[in-house]
Amino acid sequence: MTLRAETTAPPSARVHRFTPAERWVHRATAVLMSVCVVTAACLYVPQLAVLVGRRELVVRVHECAGLALPVPVLLGLVSRAFRADLRFLNRFGPHDRVWLRAALRRDKRRSSRPAGKFNAGQKVYAAWIAGATLVMLGTGLMMWFTHLAPLVWRTSATFVHDWLALTIGVVLAGHIGMALGDPEARRGMRTGEVSGEWAEREHPLWRP
């Protein structure tokens, strides 16, 4: 795969990164995921369970948010820009392997971490969270509709659901931490635009 040339946008220029539809998908998914995480914590952390109470209501909110979690992505497929970004996220090239090797070596030099519109870390995160969401949805349905599977399957589903939920919480905390450390990336998700200087520094192979 041939690496693309660096973006030619002037450093002072604003570069279009995300459409309103893409930002809506991200925000709606973030809200639903947050509801799932918070309600799960209220169900499994005794101190929070006592503080919040109304366990039956919390369970229903958790179930509804979990069922609705894939909806923003499915609706987003109407957007051509969103479908194009999914294709970018789903393609791993030689420069992505270079990026991952540099990350594993903790090499923070920009020149050692080439990236297109999305870097390799973002691609790995997107693939992992998508797979984890599907597993959580499947195991959650087995726990909710008890007639769908025998007892041993439901027991296994509960084990997977609980431990994967904990893992998702940790990974989401890391994702939020990375976002907090990059104000320009947050601005891109909030307004749809980033600076040309940021685009050239963080995503040199991206051609807006």
User: Can you tell me the overall shape?
Assistant: elongated
The rounded distance between the terminal residues' Cα atoms is 19 Å
Total of helices = 10
Average predicted confidence as pLDDT: 88
Radius of gyration: 20 Å
Spell the H/E element sequence.
EHHHHHHHHHEH
Largest sheet geometry: 2 strands, antiparallel
In percent, how helical is the residue content? 55-70%
SS-derived structural category = mainly alpha
Strand order of the largest sheet: 1-2
Count of DSSP E strands? Answer: 2
Share in β-strands = under 5%
Uncertain residue segments: 1-8
Summary tags:
208 residues, mainly alpha, 69% helix, disordered N terminus
